[in-house]
Design a protein that fits this description.
Elements (H helix, E strand, L loop, with lengths): L2 H6 L5 H11 L4 H8 L3 H15 L4 E3 L4 E3 L1 H25 L7 E5 L1 H6 L1 H11 L5 E5 L2 H10 L4 E5 L6 E9 L1 E5 L10 E5 L5 H13 L3 E6 L3 H9 L5 E3 L8 E3 L1 H4 L6 E8 L7 H17 L1
Parallel strand pairs: 3-4, 3-5, 8-9
Antiparallel strand pairs: 1-2, 5-12, 6-12, 7-10, 7-11
Helix pairs in contact: 2-3, 2-4, 2-5, 3-4, 7-12
Amino acid sequence: MSNSQFMLIRNIDIGVLRSFLLIAEGRSFAQASAIIGRSPSAVTLQIQRLEEDLGTQLLRRSNREVGLTLAGERLLGFARRLVQINDEAVLAFRAGVEAKPLRFGATQDLADAVLPEVLRRFSLERPEVELTLRIDRSTSLIEAVKTGEIDAAIAIRRDDPLNRAPLAEMPMVWIGQDGMNLPVDRTVPLVLFDAPCSFRSAAIDALAAAGRPYRMALTSPSLTGLKSAVAVGLGVTVRTRLLLGPGLADVRAGLGLPALPDMALSLYINPKSDPWPARDDFIALCRQAFRFAL
């Protein structure tokens, strides 16, 4: 290859290719921008720059969707290979530095609704890191961070020195069997965790303030147990919308139940732990997942 030919070849930015791959895989520009931590307009400029560098249109835009042109489909395989080679090169130099396992804790609600996508992406972006995941109640998770059993956790916000930053706020909701009927003068059957539990306290306080009688239909330490009992109509529970699924519904309006407060989630990190990119990357993925799940 001559010097003149060499000078005409442009280098493709790996970060731009990452954005292209996100769009090509079905993400919207807003979703791609949240994942890479840039604005939607910045992602748009990245794609335009890529099209200018290659001298062809890569995306076909309409009011409802964005699709790949034939050139975009041709680029897809190259983009995946280039990003993969880049990541393999970076990991080759990181592998010895971050070989220790990452021990992370989360509540059951998050494990079911938010963590699957986080785990999928973390395994792709950090394949060298062994991950130990603990699913437990907030009080147990905070204590585990305090004793050093786990490195970090996402749990319900409490006044604790390990509380490092708020992550999200979600409204608590009354959840019952879809189509459940309960006259307003009837005692409310409750399906709740055993104490101490923020959701339990919120349910009892709200009913007491409204002068609504209640009884404990079932107490369980298991979220699966609560969900099963509610699904068969044994009673109502208080959680967030993350628990909703087939056969379950927000029953507050239909049953005339009182309003509930919001529930806040926070990040807990042991202050004795050193700065750790792998841990921070996992937390960043959790933050991004919250934006789409809540």
